[in-house]
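We now fix the convention by which a protein and its fold are recorded. Here is one such record, which you should read through line by line:

>
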Amino acid sequence: MPDVKRRNFSISVGILCFTRYASRSKGDFMFSQALIREFKQKLGSDNVFDDAADRLTYSYDAAVLEPVMPALVVRPTTSDSLGQAVRLCNENGIPLTVRGAGTNLSGGTIPNVGGVVVLTNALNQIIEINEADMYAVVQPGVITAKFAAAVEKAGLFYPPDPGSQAVSTLGGNVAENAGGLRGLKYGVTRDYVMGLQFFDVNGDRVKTGSRTVKCATGYNLAGLLVGSEGTLGVFDEIILKLIPFPAHRKSMMAVFGEMGIASEAVSAIIASHVVPATLEIMDNFTIRAIESFSHAGLPVDAGAMLLIEVDGHPAQVEEDALRVESICQNLGAGIRVAKTAAERDSVWAARRSALSALAKLKPTLVLEDATVPRSRIPEMIRALQSIAVKYDLTIGTFGHAGDGNLHPTILTDKRNTHEWEKVEAAITDIFDHALALGGTLSGEHGTGLAKSRFLEKETSPATIIYSRKIKAALDPKNILNPGKIIGGGS
């Protein structure tokens, strides 16, 4: 989730962008009054926003990309009105971008010029939590953390926990296939989507999946829609798998002299066949930034730190914890085990504040998502350190080391043209190194606009052509979030 300082910088850029728009003729960026009246008739006057200030608010997201002013913003309050909004856009050939909280980091919710932003924040009901069969049915605008808390109150567990969970929505999580700190053991959002109800480009309701553990009916459309970033359909209802809450948890902090040894500890823990619920890494720069921000008592003189939590049956937890402690100590780490739930929660809250803490230090923060096979973490860490030196850039590194998902975070000021050129070159180097190690461009942040131009490096020209054929078949007018993932924007 972007810090206030970063958000203010984005807003300042947005104001400059708005000034450019305002200097042009009003008709270039405004719908006809007849079409606006039709949207108001279908959705209600209070749920259609054509004022410039309102539209500016939804011209950017958490990615460091230029904002784009939409022509209209609409806020459906019912499933039917959501479908009607989609149908109206398609009938009139209007680009449509669905937006939850706008916390995505790849430009997935930046709209198109002349397009419509469809807000889902009014579609925020938890329709059902079924304790007996362990599933839930939700609307796309439900806040992730609120849902997780409601599930826990019912005695169950929803593991996906993106860093933006306090404000991100479940619809956005599904659209981006969001991960989080617990991805190592519990997987990502895709692993919990049992079924979907969504609107196709014509505004017709499509159903896929079910409330049952097994479902082999028809094509796996849910598998196609998860991670599609609103380019193939618009979510209406989501069926999510729930699991029993772990009986016991144990958290610890392992403090190392330098990142290389900490990364070797990560590989050794995984190689020992212990699968922690979370296994997070932080370099010294990030540790100091977080401590200054959160005052959680982190060791600011540590070269690197691992935060580890094991959970499950009490006896197994204790056995796994001892094995992890032994591995870390053999590599020279000091170990601190959380003695109380409050101490545990304080440290994890500090870790979740990493992005906000780093964002306070420079006007522009570029959070990348380099992900490699877990055994290659030490090599990727060394590559990141080398890239920082090569381009003379400040890069704070933290992330979900247990599943190979690192977040190298470049601190800069985009207004410094020379430095920004170095940042862009460094990003390309980061991706190239991740791919050379058998990794991926994006572990959990999606593709959006920011990474679409790199897609061919990881896949192939035929892959992109194949994907565009699917898009063209399902969205002939290319109105569903055009330009995202596979390029080819309107």
Observations:
- Residues 292 and 357 are 8 Å apart (CA to CA).
- The radius of gyration is 23 Å.
